[in-house]
């Protein structure tokens, strides 16, 4: 994103927002230190946005809106251009969940699990890491992040992928977001398998905790370029992770991939220590 203008706290940003949307210019209004910061979502629209801004300053009438059908298509195209990595992660996760629901579940599960699985009635044989490496099935390092077990698991994880991952990608770009997904996915999966190799696992929780750790530490190291993750959310999510590590959580039926959560959180914190400028692709 790129900041277009800062309006004072006394100014209403909605008239300008209506002008920008009427011109098909995607933007976001965020609270800033001096008032309302208007951020341009696609820097390729910078010249057109400047023209609309100048016209708005001079009291020009609002641009004529395009037909609703064209606006919807344009909005979808802009959304894909802004968030291709986040959207791809969500779509692939939905497709995998649909496949696990409508095909024999163990077939797809066995192909995407961290190590090869063999089903025999009610029993599952889990191969070791050396079997996976020897057979060249390298995709298994990352594919467990696309598998979810149950509707609530899927909805909860994809909601945070959209909220946290979408915000991160919109501000810092697709490359940084993809880097976090790949590193957090692989390393959190490795952590979970290393400490608990006898239980198959899946889910994007490790990636979500990496988002959380990265965004929280980034905000503290770069307050002038914030990602604006709420502190209350960080406290809740970390508290939930700690609770799930207790015997009480297990007795209540909460069986989660604790090592993947912690591994993802640590990956996010470490990546936030690396030098990075705020940019859009």
Automatic annotation (TrEMBL):
Chain segments annotated as transmembrane: 83-103, 145-165, 177-195, 201-218, 230-254, 260-276
Alphabetical list of Gene3D superfamilies matching this protein: Rhomboid-like (1.20.1540.10)
Residues of the Peptidase S54 rhomboid domain: 136-275
Any Pfam family the entry gives: Rhomboid
Record key words, sorted: Hydrolase, Membrane, Transmembrane, Transmembrane helix
Primary localization class, coarse: membrane
Lineage: superkingdom: Bacteria
GO cellular component term, pick one: membrane
Subcellular location: Membrane
Topology versus the membrane: Multi-pass membrane protein
GO molecular function: serine-type endopeptidase activity
Keyword field contains Membrane: yes
Family designation: Belongs to the peptidase S54 family.
Name the UniProt record assigns to this protein: Peptidase S54 rhomboid domain-containing protein
């Amino acid at each position: 994103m790129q900041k277009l203008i800062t309006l004072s706290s006394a100014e209403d940003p909605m008239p300008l927002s209506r002008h920008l949307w009427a011109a098909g210019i995607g933007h976001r209004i965020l609270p800033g230190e001096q008032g309302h910061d208007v951020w341009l979502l696609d820097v390729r629209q910078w010249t057109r946005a400047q023209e609309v801004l100048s016209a708005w300053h001079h009291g020009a009438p609002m641009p004529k809106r395009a037909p609703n059908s064209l606006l919807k298509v344009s909005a979808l195209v802009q959304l894909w251009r802004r968030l291709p990595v986040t959207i791809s992660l969500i779509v692939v996760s939905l497709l995998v969940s649909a496949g696990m629901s409508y095909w024999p579940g163990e077939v797809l599960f066995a192909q995407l699990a961290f190590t090869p699985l063999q089903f025999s009635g009610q029993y599952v044989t889990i191969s070791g890491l050396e079997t996976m490496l020897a057979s060249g099935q390298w995709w298994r390092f990352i594919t467990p992040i696309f598998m979810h077990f149950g509707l609530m698991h899927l909805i909860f994880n994809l909601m945070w992928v959209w909220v946290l991952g979408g915000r991160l990608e919109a501000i810092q770009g697709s490359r940084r977001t993809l880097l976090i997904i790949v590193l957090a996915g692989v390393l959190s999966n490795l952590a979970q398998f290393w400490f608990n190799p006898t239980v198959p696992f899946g889910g994007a929780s490790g990636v979500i905790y990496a988002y959380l750790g990265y965004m929280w530490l980034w905000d503290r190291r770069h307050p002038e370029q914030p990602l604006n993750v709420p502190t209350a959310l960080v406290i809740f999510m970390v508290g939930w992770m700690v609770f799930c590590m207790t015997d009480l959580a297990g007795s209540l039926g909460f069986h989660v991939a604790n090592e993947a959560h912690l591994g993802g959180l640590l990956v996010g914190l470490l990546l936030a220590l690396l030098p990075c400028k705020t940019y859009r692709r």
